[in-house]
């Protein structure tokens, strides 16, 4: 049954499953950190305050939970159940270069993705996806079949491991050596393959690797 108590219980349970406080959950969702504080759940005159549908939508997006999972958390014992593993899109490097799977910012687009469970060791954010290594070109660091978790929304810095897609459709995992508004320089992971440099006009997108299944 949907009630003031059950919906706040669901928010608290969702925070607990992600090892967050209610304020930490609000912050992750881009909300005022005090939005979910217990003191905010009733007005000074005792009237019940409910979270907005926009707030709930932002929380679901930030944690990867579905509306069905959120509804299930309204049960009194929900916080003590086993944590779920939200799924994220998975695509192979060869498919990534074919086009149609990403928007101009490097975020997943369209349908037809495979999915994998999101690793507990990585920080969950909206827009994150997985790329599966295909072939031997990234040895010895990454092997055929390894999975990379990529965050296109993360800021990239010198020394980061990144995935780059060129406007010609080439997709590669490299180490970022230099990044300016005009060009990038990339160090190859495999010593048998050359280092690369591109003008930014040649680059469709660049995204930071945040986790690898090695």
Automatic annotation (TrEMBL):
Residues 89-210 form the Peptidase S24/S26A/S26B/S26C domain. Keywords: DNA-binding, Transcription, Transcription regulation. Residues 25-51 are annotated as: Disordered. One of its GO terms (molecular function) is DNA binding. Pfam families: Peptidase_S24. Residues 42-51 have a biased composition (Basic and acidic residues). InterPro entries: LexA-like, LexA/Signal_pep-like_sf, Peptidase_S24_S26A/B/C. This is Helix-turn-helix transcriptional regulator. The lineage of its organism: Bacteria, Pseudomonadati, Pseudomonadota, Alphaproteobacteria, Hyphomicrobiales.
